[in-house]
Structure formats: structure tokens, C-alpha cells
Amino acid sequence: LSSPEDLSFLHGTLIEYRCHKGYDLTSPTMLVCQEDGSWNGTAPHCVPAECETPPSPKHGWVNVTDTSLGSMVMYTCEDGYRLEGDSLRQCVSGRLWTNDAPICRPVSCGDPGTIANGTAHGGDFVYPEALHYECHPGFVLRGRDTIACQVDGKWNGQKPLCEPLSCGSPKVPSDVSVKGDEYNYNSEIELSCQPGFVLRGKSVSVCQADGTWSHDSPTCVPARCGKPSPIPNGRVLGSEFGLSSKVKYECDEGYALDGDATRVCQSDG
Q: Mean pLDDT score of the chain, rounded to an integer?
């Protein structure tokens, strides 16, 4: 720039300063030639035009080598994150960077899907989130209970399976018979005894969610009918009440029996 003092100007002349491309004024200044032949201020300076250094994005950084007019900066993300937006920005007139600053977004591993008879707990399907799997009651987990989203956008393992829990073959005494060959959760088996014996305990056992059968300790005991009830105006003859034992009924004098005179203790007691 030439100083106004180097030229001749008339009173009232207004001059405006401008800088060459790539330079900015230190202040927007206009000078006026006054009556006494002096200017009403001092000339500004032209300095190289520069943009402010842009901040690095979260989970990334910006490579800055120069911030002068026309210079470029490049954005990069950490592993596990992808750049959303333009990776390059340029310093332009007005000390502005072109475009909006890009953002580093976590990479997505995608939804691995649900599992039958179980649930998954966790956040989004992005790095570095993890999913934790649990099975419903009566099912057991086969595989890893936790999988994590990795930097390459892949899960670090396969989702697990929930398989029906097995109670295994029921343990009962040798004289207790078992009917049923399904031993998974909620399956039922029937317990019984040989003729002449009665089951002491539950006759139906269920495979429970904790992997145990619902029966306690069933046993087979000889069938016994117990002493029969007396009848009015009559009597019961007999003192053995075990299996196949017989009792006989008689009426007092003057009364006649209505029904069978003999009863037999049966195998079901």
C-alpha cells in the first residue's frame, strides 16, 4: 500500500484501504483529508490472512500444517469410528473454513438378531458396545453370554443358543416304575408300583427350571386297606387287612344284610 502522505489529495478526499489477495487489514480503516492538510488517522497494515486452528473432533483429530488463506486441513477418526462429513476443509476469505466440521461416528456391527427362548441386554449395536444374553427359565445357554462390537464393524463371536434344560433320567428306587422318556424342562413322568403295592409320594413328577424333578423320595409299600368301618346293627369279622385279605359282615338277630357279605382288600389299597 502507498501511504497518503506520498500523494497529493484535496481537502475532503476520502480514501479506503484494501489488501492484496491473501492478506487482511488489521482494521477496516477509511481516512479523510482534513482542512489543515492532515489525515484523520493512521494507515492500517496488511497481514497474512489466516483462519483459526479448528478443534479436533471427539474420537478423532485434525491434521493442521498451515492456517493461511487457501490452506487445507484433513480430518481422521480413531479406529472403530467413521468420518461423517468432508474430510478436507479449506481456509477461505473471511477467515472461514469451508463446510461444517465432520463428526466421528462409531462403526455399526448391525443387529445380530434375537435368540429363541432368551433375551439380549445392551445398548446400540455400535463400537464398543456389548450385548449380554440370558435364557428364559428352563433353558440353558450354549455359547458365549456376551458379544462385543469390534473396531472392524464385526461382532467378536456368534450369538449363543438357549437349549431346553434336561433333568436327566429320574432317580427312583428299583421297585418304582417310571413311564415317560422326555426329560427336558416341563416334561412329565408317571411313577407307579407293582400290583400289590401302593406309591407313597407323588405319582406325577415334572422337570423343573432348576434341573431337578418335582418328586421327593417315592417308595412302594405293601397295599393295606386298613380296618373297615363298623356297620350299624351288625359286625365285621376278620383281623387281617393286607392285600387279598377278606372280611365278612354279619347282622344282628332280627336284621338282614343288604349288600355283599364279603369284601376283599385290593391292590390299590
A: 90
pLDDT at 20 over 60: yes
Q: At residue 177, what are phi and psi to the nearest 5 degrees?
A: -90, 145
At residue 254 the predicted structure's pLDDT band, cuts being 50, 70 and 90, is: confident
**What residues does each domain of the chain span?**
1-48, 60-106, 118-164, 176-222, 223-269
* CATH dotted code for 1-48: 2.10.70.10
Q: What DSSP line would sit under the chain, residue for residue?
A: ---GGGS---TT-EEE--PPTTEEESS--EEEB-TTS-BSS----EEE-BPPPPPPPTTEEEEES--BTT-EEEEEE-TTEEEES-SEEEEETTTEESSPPPEEEEPB-------TTEEEEES-SBTT-EEEEEEPTTEEEES-SEEEB-TTS-BSS---EEEE-B--S----TTEEEE----BTT-EEEEEE-TTEEEES-SEEEB-TTS-BS----EEEE-B--PPPP-TTEEEE-S--BTT-EEEEEEPTT----S-SEEE--TT-
Contact 231, 214 (CB under 8 A): no
The one-letter code for the residue type at 5 is E
CB 136 within 8 A of CB 117: yes
Does the pTM surpass 0.70? The reply is: no
- Non-local CB neighbours of 259 within 8 Å, separated by 6+ positions: 249
Q: Could you tell me which CATH number the domain at 118-164 has?
A: 2.10.70.10
6: confidence class by pLDDT, cuts 50, 70, 90: low
Residues 86-133 pLDDT 10s? 999 999 887 899 999 999 999 999 999 999 999 999 988 999 999 999
